[in-house]
Amino acid sequence: MRPAALDWSVDNCTVARAMEILGEKWTLVVLREVFSGVRRFDDMRLRTGIPRQVLTNRLAGLVEQEVLRREPYREPGSRLRHEYRLTAKGLNLWPVLVAVLAWGDRYLADPEGPPLSVGHRDCGAEISVELHCAAGHHVTEPRDVLPRPGPGAHPR
């Protein structure tokens, strides 16, 4: 049976566009650091081992895409430097990182468990990403999700 998806163009696919920004390993590692409160270049480099030029490029790309913004700071007696803060666009990536974290915890964690957890600031309970339809139904099975053409879809 021929998949209906073949009838629709993927030229304006937002998954592909998002992956142009996020699809490189170090980009998600940088975002993990910023979400964890590590905002300065040298701290990120020390903590992650990302090569200097790669980190420079990833940060520049995330600033260019308005996922991060540069904030100036100056340590006493030092030159002006910048730290990196999440924009509203960047903050909206938090569910994506939580979903990637949950997948990694499920399939890739060491035997003693995952090295990072995320909790609700108010009550401390673990955070998870869940799917709900617009009518409010909880969706637990991937096969209960039906991809279909959206309002911006174009026939092939």
Describe it.
This protein has helices at 14-22, 25-35, 41-48, 52-64, 88-91, 94-108; strands spanning 68-73, 81-86, 131-132, 138-139. With 156 residues, it is an alpha+beta fold. The strands form two sheets. Strands 1-2 form a two-stranded antiparallel sheet. A hairpin with a 5-residue loop joins strand 3 (131-132) and strand 4.
From the structure above, extract its key features.
156 residues; alpha+beta; Arc Repressor Mutant, subunit A; two-stranded antiparallel ribbon
Give a short overview.
With 156 residues, the chain is α+β, with helices and mostly antiparallel strands. It is built from 6 helices and 4 strands, in the order H-H-H-H-E-E-H-H-E-E.
